[in-house]
Amino acid sequence: MSGRSERKGELDELAGSLLEVVPLVMRSIRAEMRANHHAGLTVPQFRVLNFVHVRGRTSLSDIAEHVGLSLASMSKMVEGMVVRGLMDREIDSSNRRRVAITITERGREAWNAARTTTRESIVRRLRGVEAVSRGELLRGLGALRPFFSEGSDPSARVGGRNADS
Q1: Which domains does the chain have, with CATH numbers?
Q2: Taking all residues of the chain, what is their mean pLDDT, rounded to a whole number?
Q3: String of b and e for 133-148 (b: at least 16 CB within 10 Å)?
Q4: How far is Cα 33 from Cα 36, in angstroms, rounded to an integer?
Q5: What contacts 146, CB < 8 A, 6 or more positions away?
Q6: For residues 165 and 157, what is the distance between their CA atoms, to the nearest angstrom?
Q7: Is-contact 57 102, C-beta < 8 A?
Q8: What are 110-129's pLDDT values in tens digits?
Q9: Is residue 113 within 8 Å of residue 106, measured between CB atoms?
Q10: Which residues contact 9 (CB under 8 A, 6 or more apart)?
């Protein structure tokens, strides 16, 4: 088998494993959040707070695109979060037709509480993983981050070559 064929097979196997494992991890995270009602947040609300926390001031359409909801549904969700004091809507000073969404201190506290409790649950699950495997997982996840981060180029290059060549 040629080097290129071996890499293609390895990449296919990696992609298949990601498609199997990531949904399992996400299902576990969702179940943990639902079971403990972290700070009164639903999973979609947590995702919204996380997006705005990481991104800073952003638009309703950017949030809707990230979460995968229609603009109308996202507007309704954000309005409820504004009423609860988790987020603010501000008129963009550079474009009065644009509304900027920001996270409030109360929203940051709710996000942090939900994240901390969920993280603790993940730690409990990972206790059975051997130290060597944990190190391998950390390195592997770190290596994947640039390929899946927002704004990453799907045709990312590695060492001057396309990742799949």
Answers
A1: 3-146 (1.10.10.10)
A2: 85
A3: eeeeeeeeeeeeeeee
A4: 5
A5: 152, 156
A6: 9
A7: yes
A8: 999 999 988 998 899 899 88
A9: no
A10: 1
For residue 5, give both structure tokens.
């064929």
How do strand 161-162 and strand 157-158 relate by DSSP bridges?
antiparallel
Band of the pLDDT at 161, cuts 50, 70, 90? very low
Question: What is the token pair recorded at 43?
Answer: 């999973």
Q: Read off the tokens for 163.
A: 């990742």
Please give the full DSSP string across 114-134, using - where no structure is assigned.
Answer: HHHHHHHHHHHHHTTS-HHHH
Q: Which helix (H) or strand (E) holds 55?
A: helix 43-55
In the chain, what percentage of residues exceed pLDDT 90? Answer: 53
CA distance 104 to 83: 12
